[in-house]
Amino acid sequence: MAQRKIALACNVCGSRNYTLAANPNRTERLEIKKFCKFCGEHTLHRETR
Fold this sequence. Notes:
4 strands
């Protein structure tokens, strides 16, 4: 069975920069500050479905 993947989208420009394996135990959407290569700075990235 293949693992489900989720994408992290930048809140500023909306680009989907990162992918992670989905965790079924997490009930809320993941929010992490990561570097966005399109914005050129660290911004908040939110899990998309």
